[in-house]
Amino acid sequence: MLSSILALILGFLLDLLIGDPHFIYHPIRLVGNLISVTEKGLRKLFPKTEKGELTAGVVLVVIVAGVTTAVPWLILYLAGLVNSTLVFILQTIMCYQLLATKSLKSESMKVYDKLKEKDLEGGRYAVSMIVGRDTKSLDETGVTKAAVETVAENTSDGIIAPMLFMAIGGAVFGYFYKAVNTMDSMVGYKNDKYLYFGRFAAKLDDVVNYIPARLCAYLMIGASFLAGLSSKDAFRIYKRDRYNHASPNSAQTEAVMAGALQIQLAGDACYFGKLYKKPTIGDPIRAVEPEDIKRANVLLYATAILSLFAFAVVKLAVWGFIFM
Question: Can you quote a single GO CC term (predicted)?
Fold first, then answer.
């Protein structure tokens, strides 16, 4: 237990220092490839009916989650036959690969840099790399809001949730979480192609993120105080607007972010050329500005560090209680 939490701490530090170098093939891309290949095979096997696609979607989740969890477990098991040091090194590397703190900051700051250069088209393109909505018609405020919202949502999905799973069960649990989350990002759409096929993956993602999203929200409220932002408004808007989203989890951290920055987020957005009417999150106490992307990243880092500290303390306390 002590080595697993140390591996998580070192993995987090590696993520802050190195991020995700583009010249290294990230293992989550292998998970994405597995999803794509499995989807093609299942669509050939199962009938193109509602029941057929729902069943195929369940099989997809079982195969992808099973393989993605089993492979790291097997690697660590075989390493354990050699020595414990090798297990620790591999566990640290896996924890590092499962976190995305620096890459989330780096990608969102590309949007900030373009906006500061008055390059709106560049900003639209940069934000299109990290959001799922249409960005071609967004103005500066829209681009900024999209970047801030994705930092808020991915603080939970990309950092705190996998960190929590790894704190509980090491890298193996972390890979299980990433398998579910990656499936949701690839097939969890409510369009003609994935309405039934991706439903189970989307619902499972809602389930596994239910506790992490809410835990992340409260940790983010605490972090907003440490970051010198408005923790009072963060808590107020969280209590009021945390369900202002079709997803049961997405608005949890977006509400905190909106309150902490004292701006209004969300609202109507276009996806695949179709306008979706969505409620707003937060109060427009002040106008949205590009600097909010930097402020969002300050809150991102503060939340990540506070969360790591909290998870480590709790795990060590549990370990001490069990073995005292």
Answer: plasma membrane
Tens digits of residue pLDDT in 37-61 = 999 999 999 999 999 999 999 999 9
- Neighbour-count burial for 179-200, b at 16+ CB within 10 Å, e otherwise: bbbbbbbbbbbeeeebebbbbb
Write out the two tokens for 283: 């109060």
| Closest to 11 (Cα-Cα) out of 56, 72, 58, 74 | 72
pTM of the model: 0.92
Q: By three-state DSSP, how is residue 141 classified?
A: helix
229: left (phi over 0), alpha (psi -120 to 50) or beta: beta
SS3 204: helix
Coil, strand, or helix at residue 271? Answer: strand
**Domain tally for the chain?**
1
- What residue numbers bound the domain in which 248 lies? 1-323
Give the pLDDT band (50/70/90) at residue 199: very high
Environment class of residue 258 by beta-carbon count within 10 Å: exposed (0-12), middle (13-18) or buried (19+)? Answer: buried
> Taking the CB of residue 62, how many other CB atoms lie within 10 A of it?
12
